[in-house]
Amino acid sequence: MSEQYLQSLGQQAKQASFALANLSSAQKSALLSAIAASLTAAADEIVAANEQDVAAAKAAGLTQAMIDRLLLNHQRLAGVIADIDNVIGLPDPIGREFDSRLLDNGMRLCRRAVPLGVIGVIYEARPNVTVDIAVLALKTGNAVILRGGKETLNSNLALAKAIRSAIVECGLPADAVQLIDNPDRTLVTGLLKLDQYVDMIVPRGGDKLQRLCAEQATIPVILGGIGICHLYVDKAADLTRSTDVIINAKVQRPTVCNALDTVLVHEAVAAEYLPLLAAALTAQGVKLVGCEATSKLLPAYEIEAATDESFSTEWLSLTLGIKVVADIEAAISHIRQFSSGHSEAILTDDIAAASHFLNEVNSAAVYLNASTRFTDGGQFGLGAEVAVSTQKLHARGPMGLEALTTYKWLGVGDYTARS
Amino acid sequence: MSEQYLQSLGQQAKQASFALANLSSAQKSALLSAIAASLTAAADEIVAANEQDVAAAKAAGLTQAMIDRLLLNHQRLAGVIADIDNVIGLPDPIGREFDSRLLDNGMRLCRRAVPLGVIGVIYEARPNVTVDIAVLALKTGNAVILRGGKETLNSNLALAKAIRSAIVECGLPADAVQLIDNPDRTLVTGLLKLDQYVDMIVPRGGDKLQRLCAEQATIPVILGGIGICHLYVDKAADLTRSTDVIINAKVQRPTVCNALDTVLVHEAVAAEYLPLLAAALTAQGVKLVGCEATSKLLPAYEIEAATDESFSTEWLSLTLGIKVVADIEAAISHIRQFSSGHSEAILTDDIAAASHFLNEVNSAAVYLNASTRFTDGGQFGLGAEVAVSTQKLHARGPMGLEALTTYKWLGVGDYTARS
């Protein structure tokens, strides 16, 4: 039954993807405008559906943070709809030809950017993802299969209904956007094995979901969104200016993946700097988990003892690991051992140390004298963000529209045979 | 035991990859030259080891084709070594910075091409792959874990020994190239799950190996090398010139993945063309598997009845499927249903048909008026070929050196915090 359901879901998505692949940019813009209009027209219905979800979440005793993520009121919905205009304004990556060359046998060869085909996205509480991902997929000529969290099902159903009706209005197949509306969890593992129809899976969720996808998927998966992020304060750092960057990286939005998890401090400046830093951090309500040297240098503070386990933790809260390191090599070693490959930074005024760190640290984003919080599609000027990849194939770091494309090789000959 | 072995293999490879990542192009060229010299010096030893493998293969009753793939005599080894010079001459893709931009907050952002890290390659009979892959991996600053077929183990051990001694001679860690020398098959599935250390798996082998990797790997895998390739003869094709292209695609080297598997012929020209084509093909010893219409139009030939199963077969031999189609849409539908996404071609003099086919057929390589046999790194001018990808993420079609790289984002600020 669920096997059959997924097969038809996949088949319909693949079929729809053929209709999307060669739309012109103007046609795709018209489609996205129609979706914005349809969502606006259905706003009352969508907000009412979301109220049901929120009421159920409250009754189920979900945390306030969860409920806040779930909430889609008129104001938020208007923001989501306004974002569609931004996407319409982005350049269309599809159809561009590049790396063209004339081969010795007279054949003209090039690569042409084309849609991936069908994208599967598995996500959790936020209903805005339903719209964001559908819009980015359609902008790049891809069909999409969405699997949201069960706690947002009513909201997602209302959103998908409005999106699909706009697609049909534009004379395109509704199945360009499909929502799995059955909370059965075996559908997730089933989706991960639908390699005959689905070209890429993007899991947007925590560590458990990422592992499930890595282990179960027979489809290429873009892992990401897990950031154990480090910032190294070199002995040549401007200590006064460093504190602002660290506070920004840790405190501005502690629940996101590019928030800082561990500060590494060169031992030559640790005695001078740690008391200043600790004062600034605790004033912001940050809880410290430090190595032995840290505890010794901060006798006035209550410091939890750091362990390999704590250094392997993505805090997602106002907790920060601190470690005193002998030198830049020790900092790099620590990062290599504990980083999730998301974002790391060095603070220094020493050009040799800066260059060494940027060369040797191989995470998706590496910063000199900047906060790890910048790893974000919007901040990077990509105009949109599908996800943040922490793997190395296909796309790395913030994924913009380009990450939803592939290329095909086109060869034009004159009845040319290989000699 | 095997778990521990794989862990240390992975750890050593990862450690070695750090030493390789920032080598200059000159250092990498010197390393490849040293490998060429070391293989030359060890030629007698390598050929003797290969003779053992060949003798064992003969004793085990392997086919002549298998034994030929296995054979590494002095002449072939010299060819393999000469190819290293070609790779030395290719541009080094590592270190290039691109997409640089100045953000509004003053941060300078760019992407820098960097090695993937550790690449795992699983392959079958040909011992030359051991050298080819090691050289391409090192050229791009990657460490590599090799798992060859058990029938070439002696050859591979001798080759790896020579390669590793050259690496050490250059002051680099031998574990930049490691060969799994234990024929235990659980090591393959173990390797596929070594995601802590291995960044990409490239399976170079048949359908079974590809499926195993898709199903078992927790590491990103590049599937490929399976080609169910189609050529569509449009009603506006130059029929006289078409035959040469079809013969080339089918006959030149029938055992490779870009060889032709199915010819689709527009019904308007089928009655005229099929007898000509069949005569030319059978003169070359090609066996025909045709649809009903084909059989009717070729009463003089013995034609096996085509089925969905035969149309799903990668022949790898002098067998060819033939189907008469109502029009170009039927040809495209057939390709969408049966293609493995490798290479397809249209023969036509009609510009609208040509453009429609190139737009609508979404395989790794799509040709107008050319043989499918061109899908090859050498033919495409990539200078080298790691594998031919039939998936859409990361790399598509012939994979050159670029496919062994990723990028990291580098952000340079002035103690910049996110506002």
Automatic annotation (TrEMBL), chains A, B:
UniProt keyword terms in alphabetical order: Amino-acid biosynthesis, Cytoplasm, NADP, Oxidoreductase, Proline biosynthesis
This enzyme's EC code(s): 1.2.1.41
Superkingdom to which the source organism belongs: Bacteria
Class in the EC hierarchy, top level: oxidoreductase
One family name in Pfam for this protein: Aldedh
The reaction(s) this protein catalyses: L-glutamate 5-semialdehyde + phosphate + NADP(+) = L-glutamyl 5-phosphate + NADPH + H(+)
Stretches assigned to the Aldehyde dehydrogenase domain: 11-282
UniProt key word Nucleus: no
GO molecular function: glutamate-5-semialdehyde dehydrogenase activity
Predominant localisation class: cytoplasm
Protein location: Cytoplasm
Pathway given in the UniProt record: Amino-acid biosynthesis; L-proline biosynthesis; L-glutamate 5-semialdehyde from L-glutamate: step 2/2
Purpose of the protein: Catalyzes the NADPH-dependent reduction of L-glutamate 5-phosphate into L-glutamate 5-semialdehyde and phosphate. The product spontaneously undergoes cyclization to form 1-pyrroline-5-carboxylate.
Family affiliation: Belongs to the gamma-glutamyl phosphate reductase family.
Protein name (database record): Gamma-glutamyl phosphate reductase
Name of the gene encoding the protein in the UniProt record: proA
